[in-house]
């Protein structure tokens, strides 16, 4: 109900009704959604109703509907896997009972259905014992028996011994009576098979239903993502109609959020393909999206600039560590808990002002770092300087800065420092966001920059300890 209220508030003035997401958000999520919607609407003042609708719809799709659908798909997938495991276990129990029946039928054909396997096993044990030197001890101490018959009768009541020849009817024989003859045991097994057959059929039907539901949830998620791609393309084609800086920034943020979801899915698909090729999945830390695995995504173009029109000092900083390379001080998770306008978070000033991201030039690395950190709920300042100066600026504000990559951290590249196949601008340096820490020691980063083919782009970086990382 609260989410429906938000959609009414968020789109009423535009006259648009947006489809509700499946999951019901918490009250705090609802409040954040309302706040975000109101902020967007205020930034879009003066924009045509049609264009406002596109931006609000794409934002809701990316921020609410797709995450909710992703959660539903993940839950359905887990349920399906559990159902399949239970169905497999039920079938294995059925197969074991059938094997017991086959073995027992062979014995009946050989020595008859009235043969008492348990008594014979104990008698054989008694006979074997009489050939040993400890017969008296076995009969006297263990069973307090004075004759062979007493020994047999006493030991036959011992479940541990009767199991020796009772394995052919394992669960059925011990469930009813370990001293049953073969005819009784066969009947018991047949009853057990009938019960197990019913259970196996039920588990199989449950598993099939769960798999179908999981596939439907995944299809619904993909439909939303396809819709997001279409809406993003439509919005891109109309961005030129936006005349104010606030409206352009709002459209950029919404578009970037959609792009992040899109490219992270490409990473996930590449990871799944790589895992299938190698025969095993790689477990890695993930960003706020649902992607998993490692991937080599688009390579960077050389000459990417990290310039900024910031009014703060543009002095560069070296990439040497100014703090421990350990990650013991990292207590946050992604997404973080800093609000989109927080000026104070994690015990220090964030450096954020009312200017927001306005101090950073379009498509530059500094703009992307600001937007992505804001999206992740992590602190970031409005006047951090050129890319290479971010580490020193952050340290002066009280941020934790070290040489250990962490999901969501800002990777700072010193001016002229080599990144992958390219080198950061000798005057400005570069910043990027750590999207993933791979098990092979590499990291996946997202970054902006006019030298890249798209904004943002991603690439895999080796030897990440070469760089400084702004944590929180």
TrEMBL record:
Coiled coil: 73-121
Positions of the UniProt region annotated as Disordered: 221-242, 280-326
Residue stretches of biased makeup (Polar residues): 230-242
UniProt entry keywords in alphabetical sequence: Coiled coil
Organism the protein comes from: Bifidobacterium fermentum
Every Peptidase C51 domain range: 340-471
The name this protein goes by in its record: CHAP domain-containing protein
Pfam families reported in the protein's UniProt record: CHAP
InterPro entries associated with the record: CHAP_dom, Papain-like_cys_pep_sf, PcsB-like
Highest taxon of source: Bacteria
